[in-house]
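Blinded run. Sample ID left blank on purpose so nobody reads anything into the name before looking at the predicted structure. Input follows.
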Amino acid sequence: MKQVIQFAEYHLFFLSKNLKMKIIYILIIILLGSFISAQSVISFEANENYILGNLHGQNSWEVTESSDGIVQHQTVSNEQAFDGVNSFKNAYEPDYDFQWFPIFGGNFNFNVPVQASANFSISYNIWVTGQQGADFEFALYGVNANEEFAPVAGVGIENRGFIYLITDENYGFEYADATWEPNTWVNVRVELTAEEIKYFINNTLQLTVDRFNSIDLKGFNFLHNNYGHDAYYDYILINSGNMSISENQISSDFQVYPNPATNQIKISGEKDIIRLQILDIHGRILKETNNSNMNIEYLEKGTYIIKIHTNQGIFTRKLLKK
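Blinded prediction complete.
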């Protein structure tokens, strides 16, 4: 099997302590990244300048590199999508053996690190094609006092149907109460303050822990350990700065249709809607209404955020205007 010589930075901690491993991994830090504003969405759509094919180099994403070059199966795909038509396919790599730790996937570095004192949240949706295969892991990371890449928070979709939540710098974890089923979208949300980490699965709080690593955020990654099956990631919603992170939830309780849309949209769900807002990807409010219907004829083609105000909280959904 081919030898892997580069992988996502935060697992260097483990590999440096396993000198008997047959494969030696070399850390290559890539500091190119995309600026993250107060609110940003990554959804791998054409209007965000993504194209189908290998994710490497698209909007500053990097993928795992082997001795033969960039691995070939970490792609922008139109096979599954939470919303819109594309997603990131974190796929099995058939030319390589299974790995001890998740190393195959995509890595996104922030151009401007997020300060440890800032409120921050990130949510994403994941669809895994089967159990009893690979573990699919997400991590936020930074650089600690020893100048080592280290986790700040992380969530794993474990192969047996469990979900684990990272609780310390040594990748200790607790299992969530929530579980997952194949071929079903699961929403994961992580909220950070200077003091604590909150983990949500499908908008239900699973665990609150003290923030174990008070370091600035450098970026995040999605990785697997190559035991089989694929995962799709879509609609990554990032909030940083002084905004209320508890107000930025993704809810499967609401549907926006049609989506993509040209002239009119309708929002339906189980909760009563008090107010709707349309925001651009920079968080600027473009329109408000008290109705569940909205005219979007005036919008330019692109990606927008719909903020849905209810008595139970504020929820967000993505809208594609065509």
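Unblinding after everyone has recorded impressions. Helices lie at 12-15.
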